[in-house]
């Protein structure tokens, strides 16, 4: 039976109508030509349609593969649409309006050349030729790899519709039939466009347009039976006699067959004769009376053959076939002929077959070299399509096409159902109503209110809801309603709108034509509102859907070679059909609801059986029982039927294309059936199969319960066991639920997902390393409303199916033709395998997860989970992913835990845990948990990470690597959540020391950044104390000092543990680095505080231990990550090994503390000094302070560090010099630094200048800070004299008191001879007793006083200097003055000496 599954005994219609939006037609108006008659243009013809297939549409590697054009005419409008099953064509629809003209029915003829697609159009007044590019010339490469491409209609706007070369008015030729609707058109080998129209006299007029690229005349030729030809030029009115033909000969059906250099024009005339004309010879080559092939033709002879139809079919191997439909009032007959050529260019018809039909109104038919396809409208206004093989069908039995039925006329609501919800569900369930019908109904229902016509499916749903609710509210006149009244009113308005939609759906479903492609055997129905496709029906569906009277012996033979088994199966299916016909809508709803509500289908089947038995008024159950008696082995028949419907397979389909195939072949195949239309057809085919099989399984369940009720003895015979029935029952139930699930997925709409959500989802899935799987590659252009099965087919399944179909071709792919029935059957079957719930693959669920269809995925798994035991773990994992998205974390965690038990048993979970490098680092379950933890982490659920990691610690057992990973994970997320204590506890339990150290480092950094320093300091750090200190020290030395407080943290850490020496060392190092690296006022302040803290720490220690080791320079500058120092050769320099250790005691720290305070003082006084003050030594600071004028501070610093004050006195002297020589600006600036020094007293008696104050400050310092040798006086006077500044009297007087001799030497050094003479003179006088107190001489020269002396060396130098210039009288005078003084002094010394000697001798 399986082998015969592809037997094409019947077809099913599948609507390919666009749901997304109504087609957006670009409109163009073709203006009237010449003297087109507006009145004649008002003639209305019936609507018509037709199609064109490209010659290479069936070739696998053609640009035009699976591509065709179809059109519809209505009045003055022509709508053209180009379709492709492989790609989505852009700008593929166009609407042409012909002004003052009406299109002839069937007046559109399309031909293709190597470079062009040429459309020939006939209206009742004009003919037109449209020249469009051929698809093979539109694209740069023959390899089509894009999912969207431009249609041949893209540039139709550039066409000049009024070009006289391509548009002509049909001349008013005598004899042209005014009311004829038939026509024909073709292209000659020379590129001429020829249009054939019937003449009233029985001939044919042929209008010829010259080739589009060659100028020429337009001509008209009339073909007559008498073989007399008349050529009529446009504008010339002939007077020739028409001939002896009568109006009964007028053609009403024309068809053309082109041969090499000729065209045969076939005309079926009103006299029931078929005539064939040669255009080249312009003569009638054949005439055949069709009534000769009609058994009873007397009635037909008298009637005009206006209902007859004519079709041609050409086969390169078999020749030309002619199909004629002979219409009679209550019957019709198809006659098939083959054109036979005889001698002398004579032709005849070879009658092949005559087929009869009873349908009344034939809409259209098409023939091939083997089949006839026909479409009727029956008395009930229903479309009927049938086909038959006219060569091998002796019984004349037509094969059925199961048509797509209109939605049910009435919706029955239960009391617990909301009318709005149920009507919307029925209106917008995919496959029921087309967008155009809903839009038209909405427009009528709203009474002409302007509404957008270009609405998406979701927008249309909102508009419909709003419109019906508005109408409902507008009709309400009372303010209060009972719930029952409101529900009735609601149902009334929704029912009204639903009826309106039904009316338009029926109108748009009116058939217009058949479109048959002989190259691919694809049959389409062209309807008023949409396009539908015919696909083969499987044998099981065929037998179930076909009425008993249409069943043939070949159907029975197709089931099985065993006649008894085949007969049993036929009887079984008849019983199922009887049950199906007896099941009411309410009963059917019971089974549907039991499946949806996860209840037992077996119980629902029992309940339906009880109801069937209860209401069995027509004794249907007796008929079923009697038919069951005819089945010899029902268990075997049921088993065969169940096996036939089961798509379960053990082998998983290949993934991806065969890499052995060339790249261009793989890329070309990757586009096969990639268009939205193909996806829609395939998925509707799956939905149709699932719906039919669901009914079969439902009826089979009911039948099996009936069998069990009847009992073994009655029906099964003694050899059968109840156990066999139970087994079959339990096999049928999953089958029913599987088909229900597939049907549900085929009708469940996918959600339109924003791009940012898709990207976020992709990021989450990348953690699972599933993004390389085709199933999770998110499509950012999800068109709404797409069902989830369509989404799966387009995104994932199609490539798998196509690669599987062509993985091992029977013939070379280049020679492979595409047979539509075979391809669509195989594609549908493989898609069903991929969708089958009990198959090992999990691609469908992965696809939903990858495209963010989480609500649908959740619903799907909920429907699947109670009964399907395959992919249990995978479903649990994906359900957990759904719960994560919906924010139900705890449920997600439970699902992830349940899925863990299936790791290693399911393909999806195995792929999930597969590492990129293929290395297995731990057990599969631990790898799975690792992926889940990473997923929870990236989603941002640390609490769940902790909970899951904690729960699986026991499973890790002795695996210390897994333990380390889990505890590290727990630590990290506790830390992220601010659970510091728990984070520390987890840290201490990490068995891996390197990981523990990393985590410890992270703990320190994070708590510092959060300023949670108390926790950081107070943790006990058992066995980790040194590591913590090392980490903090490393961080302290590596980061910016002013933005991080690691030194202060380390200080607190040591103080908390009473390690004051370490604390002091830390703060001293901190202060050192602040001085060197932070050249700001804030840095100096912190430096002072650091040194102060260090001093305090040492003061807390016993004196003998109050010392620290001076931090080496490496502790400051050798930071982690710093580049190594190199010598001139580029080699790394070795670190010094004999580094001297320097010990700092408390006094040293106090000095540093004092120096830091002074630095801050300087910086506050002079901000410019901040840059250099931080790391300056005491000596350098003295210079900086002197420069800034802070002399008191400088003296304090010198006293602290026991430094000489000489630089201070020199600096102050220099400032005095500058002030004395400077102007007002210098005077004003001086007050700032003068104010910073404490003067001994304030003079208020007279106005004092800055210069005076500076001198007074200098004087004060000289009086206050006296040293041996009077060094400070000396340096001051030396400074003044070096700058040529006269010495102030107070300074001279002051120095005379302490060291007059030195003053004399200074005078001599700077050549101040006159001052030196005066000083010597005064000094001699003082020694002799005159003004001795001014020179610090306590006892002048006398015999009783101590001895006195004179600086003879200096005086000798002075005399020598004065005597060097003997020409200078002034010098001579000065020299004489000194000599006189010395003479006087010598005399008095002599006298005093004698007195002294005298006294001694007494």
Can you walk me through this structure?
With 1402 residues, this protein is α+β, with helices and mostly antiparallel strands. The protein has an eight-stranded mixed sheet. A five-stranded mixed sheet has the order 2-7-5-4-3, with no helix packed on it. A five-stranded antiparallel sheet has the order 13-14-15-16-17, with no helix packed on it. A hairpin with a 2-residue loop joins strand 9 (116-123) and strand 10 (126-133). It is elongated and about 200 Å long. Residues 67-540 form the Nucleoporin Nup120/160 beta-propeller domain. It is found in: Nucleus.
Largest sheet: 8 strands, mixed
Number of E strands: 34
The fraction of residues assigned to DSSP E strands is: 15-25%
Taking all Cα atoms into account, the compactness measure Rg is 57 Å
> Which range best describes the helical content: under 10%, 10-25%, 25-40%, 40-55%, 55-70% or over 70%?
40-55%
* SSE-based structural type: alpha+beta
Strand order of the largest sheet: 26-27-28-29-1-32-31-30
Domain Nucleoporin Nup120/160 beta-propeller: 67-540
Organism: Vulpes vulpes
Domain NUP160 middle TPR: 836-1100
Keywords: Nucleus, Transport
């Amino acid at each position: 039976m399986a082998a015969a599954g592809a037997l094409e005994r019947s077809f099913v219609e599948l609507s390919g109508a666009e749901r997304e939006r109504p087609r957006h037609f670009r409109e163009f108006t073709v203006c009237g030509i010449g003297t087109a008659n507006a009145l004649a243009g008002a003639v209305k013809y019936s609507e018509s349609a037709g199609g064109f297939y490209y010659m290479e549409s069936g070739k696998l590697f053609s640009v035009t593969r699976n591509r065709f054009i179809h059109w519809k005419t209505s009045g003055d409008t022509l709508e053209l649409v180009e379709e492709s099953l492989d790609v989505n064509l852009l700008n593929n629809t166009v609407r042409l309006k012909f002004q003052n003209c009406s299109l002839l029915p069937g007046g559109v003829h399309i031909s293709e050349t190597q470079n062009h697609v040429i459309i020939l159009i006939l209206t009742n007044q004009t003919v037109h030729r449209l020249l469009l590019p051929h698809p093979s010339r539109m694209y740069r490469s023959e390899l089509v790899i894009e999912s969207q491409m431009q249609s041949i209609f893209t540039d139709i706007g550039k066409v000049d519709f009024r070009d006289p070369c391509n548009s002509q008015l049909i001349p008013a030729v005598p004899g042209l039939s005014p009311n004829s609707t038939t026509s024909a058109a073709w292209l000659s080998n020379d590129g001429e466009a020829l249009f054939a129209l019937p003449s009233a006299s029985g001939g044919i007029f042929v209008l010829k347009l010259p080739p589009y690229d060659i100028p020429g005349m337009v001509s008209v030729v009339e073909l007559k039976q008498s073989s007399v030809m008349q050529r009529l030029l446009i504008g010339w009115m002939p007077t020739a006699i028409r001939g002896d033909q009568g109006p009964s000969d007028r053609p009403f059906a024309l068809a053309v067959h082109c041969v090499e250099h000729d065209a045969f024009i076939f005309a079926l005339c009103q006299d029931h004769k078929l005539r064939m004309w040669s255009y080249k010879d312009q003569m009638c080559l054949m005439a055949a009376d069709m009534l000769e092939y009609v058994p009873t033709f007397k009635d037909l002879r008298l009637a005009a053959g206006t209902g007859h139809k004519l079709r041609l079919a050409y086969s390169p191997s078999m020749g030309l076939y002619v199909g004629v439909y002979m219409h009679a009032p209550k019957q019709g007959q198809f006659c098939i002929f083959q054109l036979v050529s005889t001698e002398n260019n004579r032709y005849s018809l070879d009658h092949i077959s005559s087929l009869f039909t009873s349908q009344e109104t034939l809409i259209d038919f098409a023939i091939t070299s083997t089949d006839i396809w026909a479409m009727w409208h029956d008395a009930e206004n229903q479309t009927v399509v049938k086909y038959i093989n006219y060569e091998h069908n002796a019984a004349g039995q037509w094969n059925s096409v199961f048509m797509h039925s209109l939605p049910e006329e009435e919706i029955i609501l239960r009391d617990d159902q909301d009318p709005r919800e149920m009507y919307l569900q029925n209106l917008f369930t995919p496959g029921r109503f087309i967008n155009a019908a809903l839009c038209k109904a909405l427009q009528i229902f709203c009474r002409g209110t302007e509404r957008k016509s270009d609405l998406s499916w979701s927008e249309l749903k909102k508009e419909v809801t709003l419109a019906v609710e508005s109408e409902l509210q507008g009709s309400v006149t009372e303010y209060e309603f009972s719930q029952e009244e409101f529900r009735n009113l609601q149902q009334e308005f929704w029912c009204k709108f639903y009826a309106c939609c039904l009316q338009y759906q029926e109108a748009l479903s009116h058939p217009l034509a058949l479109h048959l492609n002989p190259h691919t055997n694809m049959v389409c129905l062209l309807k008023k509102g949409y396009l539908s496709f015919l696909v083969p029906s499987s044998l099981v569906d065929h037998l179930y859907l076909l009425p008993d009277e249409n069943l043939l012996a070949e159907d029975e033979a197709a089931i099985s070679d065993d006649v008894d088994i085949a007969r049993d199966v036929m009887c079984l299916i008849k019983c199922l059909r009887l049950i199906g016909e007896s099941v009411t809508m309410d009963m059917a709803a019971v089974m549907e609801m039991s499946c949806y509500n996860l209840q037992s289908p077996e119980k629902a089947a029992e309940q339906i059986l009880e109801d069937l038995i209860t209401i069995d008024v027509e004794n249907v159950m007796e008929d079923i029982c009697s038919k069951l008696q005819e089945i010899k082995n029902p268990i075997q028949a049921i088993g065969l039927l169940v096996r036939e419907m089961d798509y379960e397979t053990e082998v998983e389909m290949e993934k991806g294309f065969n890499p052995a195939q060339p790249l261009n072949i793989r890329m070309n195949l990757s586009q096969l059936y990639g268009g939205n239309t193909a996806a829609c057809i395939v998925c509707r085919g799956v939905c149709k199969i699932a719906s039919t099989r669901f009914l079969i399984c439902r009826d089979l369940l009911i039948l099996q319960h009936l069998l069990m009720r009847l009992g073994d003895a009655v029906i099964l015979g003694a050899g059968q066991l109840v156990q066999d029935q139970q087994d079959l029952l339990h096999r049928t139930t999953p089958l029913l639920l599987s088909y229900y699930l597939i049907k549900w997925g085929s009708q469940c709409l996918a959600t339109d997902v924003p791009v940012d959500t898709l990207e976020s989802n992709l990021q989450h899935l990348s953690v699972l390393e599933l993004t390389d799987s085709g199933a999770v590659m998110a499509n950012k252009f999800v068109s709404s409303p797409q069902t989830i099965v369509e989404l799966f087919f387009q995104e994932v399944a199609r490539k798998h199916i196509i690669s599987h179909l062509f993985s091992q071709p029977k013939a070379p792919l280049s020679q492979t033709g595409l047979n539509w029935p075979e391809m669509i059957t195989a594609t549908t079957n493989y898609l069903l395998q991929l969708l089958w719930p009990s198959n090992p693959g999990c691609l469908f669920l992965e696809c939903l997860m990858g495209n963010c269809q989480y609500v649908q995925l959740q619903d799907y798994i909920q429907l699947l989970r109670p009964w399907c035991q395959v992919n249990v773990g995978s479903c649990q994992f994906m359900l957990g992913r759904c719960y994560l998205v919906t924010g139900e974390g705890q449920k997600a965690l439970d699902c992830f835990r349940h899925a863990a038990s299936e790791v290693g048993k399911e393909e999806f979970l195995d792929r999930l845990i597969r590492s990129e490098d293929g290395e297995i680092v731990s057990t599969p379950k631990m790898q799975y948990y690792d992926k889940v933890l990473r997923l929870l982490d990236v989603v941002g659920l640390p609490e769940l990470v902790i909970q899951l990691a904690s729960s699986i610690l026991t499973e890790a057992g002795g695996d210390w690597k897994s333990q380390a990973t889990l505890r590290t994970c727990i630590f990290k997320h506790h830390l992220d959540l601010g659970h510091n204590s728990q984070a520390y506890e987890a840290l201490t339990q990490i068995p891996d020391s390197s990981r523990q150290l990393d985590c410890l480092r992270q703990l320190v950094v994070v708590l510092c950044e959060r300023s949670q320093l108390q926790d950081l300091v107070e943790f006990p750090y058992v066995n980790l104390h040194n590591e913590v200190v090392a980490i903090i020290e490393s961080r302290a030395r590596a980061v910016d000092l002013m933005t991080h407080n690691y030194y202060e943290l380390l200080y607190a850490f040591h103080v908390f543990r009473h390690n004051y020496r370490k604390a002091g060392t830390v703060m001293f190092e901190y202060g050192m680095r602040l001085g060197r690296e932070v050249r700001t006022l804030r840095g100096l302040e912190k430096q002072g505080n650091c040194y102060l803290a260090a001093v305090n720490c040492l003061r807390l220690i016993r004196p003998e231990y109050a010392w620290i080791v001076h931090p080496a320079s490496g502790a400051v500058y050798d930071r982690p990550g710093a580049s190594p120092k190199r010598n001139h050769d580029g080699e790394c320099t070795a670190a010094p090994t004999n580094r001297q250790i320097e010990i700092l005691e408390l006094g040293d720290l106090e000095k540093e503390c004092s120096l830091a305070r002074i630095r801050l003082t300087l910086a506050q006084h002079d901000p410019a000094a901040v840059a250099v003050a931080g790391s300056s030594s005491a000596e350098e600071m003295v210079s900086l302070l002197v420069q800034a004028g802070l002399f008191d501070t400088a003296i304090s610093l010198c006293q602290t560090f026991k430094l000489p004050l000489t630089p201070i006195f020199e600096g102050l002297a220099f400032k005095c010099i500058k002030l004395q020589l400077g102007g007002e600006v210098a005077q004003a600036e001086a007050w700032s630094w003068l104010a910073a020094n404490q003067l001994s007293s304030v003079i208020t008696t007279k106005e004092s200048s800055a210069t005076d104050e500076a001198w007074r400050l200098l004087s004060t310092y000289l009086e206050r800070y006296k040293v041996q040798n009077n060094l400070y006086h000396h340096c001051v006077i030396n400074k003044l004299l070096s700058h040529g500044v006269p010495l102030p009297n107070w300074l001279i007087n002051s120095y005379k008191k302490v060291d007059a001799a030195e003053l004399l030497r200074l005078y001599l050094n700077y050549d101040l001879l006159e001052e030196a003479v005066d000083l010597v003179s005064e000094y001699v006088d003082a020694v002799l007793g005159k003004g001795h107190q001014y020179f610090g001489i306590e006892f002048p020269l006398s015999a009783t006083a101590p001895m006195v002396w004179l600086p003879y060396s200096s005086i000798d130098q002075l005399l020598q200097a004065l005597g060097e210039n003997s020409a200078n009288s002034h010098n001579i005078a000065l020299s004489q003055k000194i000599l006189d003084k010395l003479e006087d002094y010598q005399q008095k010394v002599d006298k005093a000496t004698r007195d002294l000697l005298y006294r001694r001798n007494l």
